[in-house]
């Protein structure tokens, strides 16, 4: 059965407390109770719908959490103050000292640093693999493996994870599959493909404005309740709460996501096809030449295209920097990290968002010194943008 995340969001009814078409914004850090017994029951997690303290739950974050759960077709969700907070809280909730994680070596630099440098401090072992090679994944699994972690489409090499096969592998070994879907909201629905937990940096496409930092964790009611437990929940105890005003803004932006993703994808597809015709070394899942093109087609919700992320390889950092400066001067977009913005953003991944990955590992995974990652914007005249880019090469 075809899943339409945009329609699922559209059908979600959320009214403000005075009947407003937008939910009211919570301006309180703490909440009153009519009886002391009710407060105690809420602390123990037994009072559904009661709010205790904003670090635990607040109405604005709950509205956004419900919308994210609808988008991802999960039972529940939790809102965090950053994408990294979503990743770290979810992994720390799943793993304890002595446990093991299998992960893609190609992943966001901050995630790589957390997995490689931080978790070993707590005796949590991590094995890095080529996530597109199921033989490597299988060989890395251990009796104490608790999580397989990957990105739907990896950052920055745009490899496509075979989520159904990874889910089978994880579940066969009693582990969970956790998927970062930041690059492909609406395009892929990992929970329908077998993922147990889906995480986001909502800073990117979800919000789309680059005016805040936020994250989300989507999963079962049981897992979200564990995260928010007042005595053992990592999201509760580590405290990465998002400000309610930001939650309200993201919720409103979320309802234009389907339009934005279609335009990001349309523009990226056009540029990728033209770059390939020009003989440039282009990486984009929407091209038949991409190694996982057919897999992406099989996994995707086809109405939303192949996404707004593409990469061009200029071989050296010097070439990449010259090209990016020329593009910024020509008005193509901005030389900046992050993605999902209405303007095109570009950066040299090995020297920016993947700089936490050691040079020898970058080389091993195939990350060129001159790889330029594009987050293609919402340009109305993409042909004009192409002409500007061609003059910059």
TrEMBL record:
Gene3D superfamilies, sorted: Aspartate Aminotransferase, domain 1, Type I PLP-dependent aspartate aminotransferase-like (Major domain)
InterPro entries: Cys/Met-Metab_PyrdxlP-dep_enz, PyrdxlP-dep_Trfase, PyrdxlP-dep_Trfase_major, PyrdxlP-dep_Trfase_small
Assigned GO CC terms: cytoplasm
Keywords for the protein's UniProt record, in alphabetical order: Lyase, Pyridoxal phosphate
CC cofactor: pyridoxal 5'-phosphate
GO MF annotations, alphabetized: carbon-sulfur lyase activity; pyridoxal phosphate binding
Keyword Lyase: yes
Superkingdom field: Bacteria
GO terms classed as biological process: transsulfuration
Pfam families membership: Cys_Met_Meta_PP
Entry-annotated residues carrying N6-(pyridoxal phosphate)lysine: 204
Family the UniProt entry places it in: Belongs to the trans-sulfuration enzymes family.
Name this polypeptide is given: Methionine-gamma-lyase
């Amino acid at each position: 059965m075809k899943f339409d995340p945009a329609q699922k969001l559209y059908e979600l009814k959320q009214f403000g407390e005075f009947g407003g078409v937008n939910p009211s914004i919570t301006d309180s850090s703490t909440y009153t109770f009519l009886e002391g017994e009710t407060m105690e029951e809420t602390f123990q997690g037994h009072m559904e719908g009661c709010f205790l303290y904003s670090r635990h739950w607040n109405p604005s974050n709950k509205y956004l959490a419900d919308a994210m759960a609808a988008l991802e077709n999960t039972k529940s969700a939790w809102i965090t103050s950053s994408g990294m907070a979503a990743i770290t809280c979810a992994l720390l909730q799943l793993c304890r000292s002595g446990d093991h994680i299998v992960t893609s070596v190609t992943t966001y630099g901050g995630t790589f640093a957390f997995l490689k440098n931080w978790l070993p401090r707590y005796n949590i072992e991590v094995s890095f693999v080529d996530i597109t090679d199921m033989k490597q994944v299988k060989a890395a699994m251990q009796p104490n493996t608790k999580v397989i972690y990957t990105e739907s489409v990896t950052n920055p090499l745009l490899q496509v994870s075979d989520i159904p096969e990874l889910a089978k592998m994880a579940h066969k070994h009693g582990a969970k599959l956790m998927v970062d879907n930041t690059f492909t909201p609406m395009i892929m629905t990992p929970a329908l493909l077998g993922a147990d937990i889906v995480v986001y940096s909502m800073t990117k496409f979800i919000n789309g404005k680059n005016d805040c930092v936020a994250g989300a964790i989507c999963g079962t009611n049981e897992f979200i309740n564990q995260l928010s437990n007042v005595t053992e929940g990592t999201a509760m105890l580590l405290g990465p709460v998002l400000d309610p005003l930001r939650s309200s803004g993201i919720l409103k932006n979320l309802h234009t996501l389907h339009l934005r993703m279609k335009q990001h994808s349309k523009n990226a597809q056009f540029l990728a096809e033209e770059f390939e015709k020009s003989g440039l070394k282009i990486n984009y899942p929407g091209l038949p030449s991409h190694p996982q093109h057919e897999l992406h087609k099989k996994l995707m919700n086809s109405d939303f295209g192949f996404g707004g992320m593409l990469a061009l390889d200029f071989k050296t950092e010097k070439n990449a920097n010259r090209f990016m400066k020329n593009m910024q001067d020509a008005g193509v977009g901005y030389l900046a990290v992050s993605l999902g913005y209405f303007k095109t953003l570009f950066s040299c991944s090995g020297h920016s968002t993947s700089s936490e990955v050691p040079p020898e590992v970058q080389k091993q995974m195939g990350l060129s010194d001159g790889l330029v990652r594009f987050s293609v914007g919402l340009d109305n005249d993409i042909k004009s943008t192409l002409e500007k880019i061609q003059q910059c090469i």
